[in-house]
Amino acid sequence: VYGVVYSLLLAVFFLSIVAGGYLITEVWGLRVGPFISSAIGALLAMLLFQPLLHWVQGAVDRAFFRERLQYERILRQVGWEMGRLLGHQEWTSLLETLAGLVTKYCSDFLHARFAVLYLHNPRRQVYEAVQCYPEEVAPPQWRETAFGGDDPLFRHLALRREELIRHDLPPDLACKEQQAIGKEMDALQAWMAIPIVAEENLLGALVVGRKKSEYPYNRSDVDTCVALAQEAAMALQNAMLFQNLAELSEYNRTVVETIPLGLCTVTANLEVRNWNTALESLTGIPRQEALGALLGDLAMRHPLVREAVPLAMWVLQEGKPLEPISLELGSEKGAGFRAFSLRATPLRSREGMEVLLVFEDVTERQRLERELNEAQRLAYIGQLAANVAHEIKNILTGLQGGAQLLRRRIGQDEKSLQYVDMIMQSGLRTDELARALLSLARRTHVPSTESRRMALDLNEVIQEVLHMARASRDAKGVEIHFEPLYRVLLVSGDYNELHQVFLNLVLNGLQAMENRGTLTIRAYREGNEAVVEIKDTGCGIPPENLPRIFDRYFTTKPNGTGLGLATVKEIVAQHEGEIQVESQVGQGTTFTLRFPLQT
User: Fold this and answer.
1) Which of 38, 64, 90 is the last residue of a domain?
2) How crowded is residue 207: how many other Cβ atoms within 10 Å of its Cβ?
């Protein structure tokens, strides 16, 4: 067709040259030579011939090559649309938009009932449907369809990388494989399946339904669809890579935000680039205020940040990670006490060296470590206490047996009998103290049961304690005053345990005064409570030790065990009472005990 047209155009061109020469010499009457007139005619013909050539070529293409023109137009338009999307579309929705573009152009150009795009999901290792156009005539449940790599249809597309036509399957396929592929295409209502290949990898497939006119697809339709798939392959691959990158970035961001560690990164000039939720909670500095700020400017707002500044500077200078350092905020026994671990690690980025700072709250971990160490100490002390208790019981057995024999031989001597009874009572009390020490060391203090509890007069218990205390060497040089301000103070309790409480507090007071001073015990009633105050004029307790005096194993005495006051507090609590302490260094200490009165 083009040969015939160009021959006619060439004849027209030469006739135009002759006509132009005739027009110049005969019509316009210019007296020029034949050569010049032919040259001018040729110039005029050329000016008119080029537009005529384009018009004739377009008319021929439209008349004889309409499908080819449409094919080229579709590819140009698809290429332009994909370039525009890659330049301006948000990465989060790029893949979905590209998939919609491919299925729409394919369906519209081929006049297909529908087109479905399947893409490979690397996480699930399946090919799943991502877009269909138009959805209203799509196969049922097209979104739920997914195929593995061993599926007959996708296995064939991956191996041969060539299109499949339902009514024209490759004849070299085995009969069984032809049947499997045909059955699957029938289930998908597919008349054509085009592989989408990039860098020798099957990214997916474009599955096209039958034509709306019910005519079969010709070779031009197939070639156009194949060209469309090739045009879309690279764009789809880039979109899939960017989507995977976006998902990975979102996953990493979620990890950073949910990890229970405070994390931040700073640049070489200590500008904050990241500040996660945990660090925002630890420091109270909002992320919006931290990002972009200098770490030094934030240092005055929280001591954690202040400690992190020299760490970051050291890592930037040395270029290597720093061993974790410990930091404690507040008083150890105060309500606001927290313990932290700070770490700094260098990071390499495109902008240069950065520093990752990690803030970890280790308060609870330290508490658990202390409890573990305490449990190990208890296990050791428990074993030691068991041996000591066994030996004490052996000694007490002989002591009490000898006291009973001595009682029989004394006869009616009241004074001697009183001393023997005191020996026997002290032996029983020593046995109870050994049992209490053993149970405390095992952290299973034997509670006061109803059978051991009885109505007791605290005045009598205190009198007995003072009777024993006055005989100790610590009482020499000390004035002991007992002021029972209420005649009877009845409480429900265990005599031996309460005796142990008051004896421990009285002996502590005597030891604090070092054979000089005054020990005053006041017992009175206040509302429904019996109150006992034990006041000494000793050296007092330093303020930093006051919160810890009831802790197990805490002691300031050279030979102390740290169990005395811990036992006192536990026994008082078991008697539904409470104990308080007030002390001033150089002036003395006052312990105040409160017990519910017996009703």
Assistant:
1) 64
2) 27
Residues 86 and 210 in one domain: yes
DSSP reduced 3-state for 184: helix
Is 507 domain-assigned?
yes
41 vs 22: CA distance, rounded Å: 8
Taking the C-alpha atoms of residue 460 and residue 523, their distance in angstroms, rounded to an integer, is 11
Cα–Cα distance for residue pair 565/164, rounded to 1 Å = 89
Instruction: Tell me: do 219 and 112 sit in the same domain.
Output: yes
Task: Indicate if 414 and 490 belong to the same structural domain.
Answer: no
Our count of domains for the chain comes to 5
86 and 214 in a single domain? The answer is yes
pTM above 0.70, yes or no: no
The residue behind tokens 């609870």 is 364
Cα-Cα-Cα-Cα dihedral sign, residues 69, 74, 80, 83 = negative
Within a domain: residue 255?
A: no
Does residue 340 sit in the same domain as residue 464? no
Range of 295's domain? 260-361
Cα–Cα distance for residue pair 132/142, rounded to 1 Å = 8
- Residues 309-354 have pLDDT tens digits of 999 999 998 888 888 888 888 755 555 678 888 999 998 877 788 9
Return d(Cα 532, Cα 525) in angstroms, integer: 9
- What the block records as the tokens of 219 is 């070779």
Per residue in 474-491, pLDDT (tens digit) is 778 889 999 998 888 999
118 strand-pairing partners: 129, 205
Do 372 and 436 belong to one domain? yes
**Dist. CA 360–CA 120, nearest whole Å:** 41
Domain assignment present for 254: no
- Cα 296 vs. chain centroid, distance in angstroms? 27
**Could you tell me the CA-to-CA distances from 468 to 460, 464, 517 in Å, in that order?**
13, 7, 19
**90 backbone dihedrals φ, ψ, rounded to 5°:** -65, 140
The residues that bridge with 194 in the sheet, in sequence order, are 206
Cβ atoms 243, 119 nearer than 8 A: no
CB distance 572 to 501 below 8 Å: yes
